[in-house]
Amino acid sequence: MPGRLTGKVALITGATGGIGSATADLFAREGACLVIADLDAEALRALAVRLEAKGADVLAARLDVSSSESWDEAIELTRRRFGRLDVLVNVAGIVDWPGIEGTTRESWDRVIAVNQTGTWLGMKAAMPLLRASGNASIVNTSSVLGLVGSGAAAAYQASKGAVRLLTKTAAVEYATQGVRVNSVHPGVIATPMIQDLLDEQGDGQPDIVRTPMRRAGRPAEIAPAMLFLAGDESSFVTGTELVVDGGLTAY
Ligand code: NAP
């Protein structure tokens, strides 16, 4: 039986991370050909071996999302290997927790470069192939911290708010060109990115997990949102924000 992404080529950034690898696993199960992109070549190789063992067609591409040259190389590799690109999932991201006064200029620039500029660079570099697909989808990863304030993580909040509106303006720009653009907004998800924070809270219920569900989410609970927006079931959905947060922003 064909999968929900059979016949599509999908590029996932931050592919070896928590949410990225869960998304790659699900996309492989749903029949996509995958371009897995991340910083760490060793981790990429390990992920490629795991996905190929499940029968997926995989290209591993080392990519620094904050570099336009790196994006051009990854897209060229994709074009040479698969000749097309139908789905771009921008997952790569970094966090820094200080607020307005605690954030250094260096950290501000790095977080903006990866989360915000990296998302724009990815859409820009991939757009010619995505337009040529005629039925393409971009899924950008924002956050609940792109929707509401936390009193911390100044650079991260700014970058994730920017990803939300970058997504909407791209959705409008490409609405008649066969490219849909949407954002996913995870709540607190147990991944390497926030493991220190979860551990710091000690035993019992971490303060950060103030969700009505009283738990952190799992990466595998974000991947289906990526899948819905990547595939044809969301063919009339563009410019939307899909919040997957256990009710955190429902308060
Ligand atoms: P993660 O496990 O740390 O994954 C992030 C991945 O991005 C890592 O593989 C990391 O590689 C990669 N990366 C970092 N800088 C990069 C760069 N310049 N170029 C390419 N790849 C780069 O974190 P995650 O929780 O899965 O986060 C995935 C996305 O979800 C992020 O955009 C994050 O902001 C968002 N998000 C996460 C949560 C959460 O609670 N976890 C909540 C809301 C939104 P290295 O490990 O080699 O640095």
Automatic annotation (TrEMBL):
**Entry-linked InterPro entries:** KR_dom, NAD(P)-bd_dom_sf, SDR_fam
Q: What PANTHER family does the record point to?
A: DEHYDROGENASES, SHORT CHAIN, ESTRADIOL 17-BETA-DEHYDROGENASE 8-RELATED
This protein is called 3alpha(Or 20beta)-hydroxysteroid dehydrogenase
- Into which family does the record put it? Belongs to the short-chain dehydrogenases/reductases (SDR) family.
In this chain the Ketoreductase domain maps to 8-192
Q: Which UniProt keywords apply?
A: NAD, Oxidoreductase
Sorted alphabetically, which NCBIfam families does this protein's record hold? PRK07231.1 (NF005559)
Coiled coil region boundaries: none
Molecular function in Gene Ontology: oxidoreductase activity
Q: Does the keyword Oxidoreductase apply?
A: yes
